[in-house]
Amino acid sequence: MESHKAIVHGFHHLFPSVTVVSEEHDHSDTQNQPVDIDMLDITKIGDDLHNKEDEQVSVDDILVWVDPLDATQEYTENLIKYVTTMVCIVVKGVPVAGVIHQPFLKKTFWAWTNHGHSKDLSKPVVNEASLRRPRIIVSRSHAGSVNVTAKSAFGEDVTIIPAGGAGFKVLSLFNDIADAYVHKTLIKRWDICAGDAILRSFGGKMTTLHGTEITYGEQFVVKNSGGLLATLNNHEHFLHKLSALATSSPVKKT
């Protein structure tokens, strides 16, 4: 996959000592498969940084998670609005910078904690109605089961929005499409790391449905069990209301 080659080769070329974990990993020598980086679109972020001071960290503390094609199923169905490419930079297990790129819409969103974010990202104004009549975005595959629990918790006024792709769902929180993103089943860390980093930059949260913080420092631990809840506001409120989902999303050893 060309996006996998471009991203992974780019990191290995510029930062050869940094460990990169990609969903499309294979046994070929990606480091020796150069991509013409000059042909790629470059998003310059300098003007959007409010803090341009460098941070000195050990290369051993850095891990990069890459998802070259999120929403693969939707891609095969030509539902291209859901498709994203994501990159996340982790330091000591904590996601500090994330990029979500929508290749077919030619839009790129990024955030670097305590440094800045893309100008197209902003935190919606808190709406108290979201506590009574929340909009919850979920995977297309299990919208029905979340709907039952959500209506039990919030009443008939809750809105369930089926959608594809973890990246798209996180962006929906910023676009004021949804108030919470819920996932019931196992999900891979390369699917959620970039979104987690961006949410953290805005004071948002991404946890399991049990309220446990998700860490990303082990390159061979790719699975996140225990479900997922992501919000920009009122995280504890949604966690409490949707607690019944946690019982059906057990934490498993990975």
TrEMBL record:
Major place of residence: membrane
Gene Ontology annotations for the cellular component aspect, listed alphabetically: Golgi apparatus; membrane
GO biological process, one term: phosphatidylinositol phosphate biosynthetic process
Root EC class: hydrolase
Matching InterPro entries: CysQ/Inositol_MonoPase, Inositol_monophosphatase-like, Inositol_monophosphatase_CS
Listed PANTHER family: 3'(2'),5'-BISPHOSPHATE NUCLEOTIDASE 1, INOSITOL MONOPHOSPHATASE 3
Gene Ontology MF terms in the entry: 3'-nucleotidase activity; inositol monophosphate phosphatase activity; metal ion binding
Record Pfam families: Inositol_P (PF00459)
Pathway annotation from the record: Polyol metabolism; myo-inositol biosynthesis; myo-inositol from D-glucose 6-phosphate: step 2/2
Catalyzed chemical reaction(s): a myo-inositol phosphate + H2O = myo-inositol + phosphate
Presence of keyword Oxidoreductase: no
Gene3D superfamilies named among the record's database cross-references: 3.40.190.80, Fructose-1,6-Bisphosphatase, subunit A, domain 1
Name this polypeptide is given: inositol-phosphate phosphatase
E.C. code: 3.1.3.25
Lipid bilayer topology: Single-pass membrane protein
Keywords recorded for this protein, A-Z: Hydrolase, Magnesium, Membrane, Metal-binding, Transmembrane, Transmembrane helix
Keyword Magnesium set for record: yes
Protein family per UniProt: Belongs to the inositol monophosphatase superfamily.
Binding residues for Mg(2+): E23, D67, L69, D70, D191
Subcellular location, record wording: Membrane
Cofactors demanded by this protein: Mg(2+)
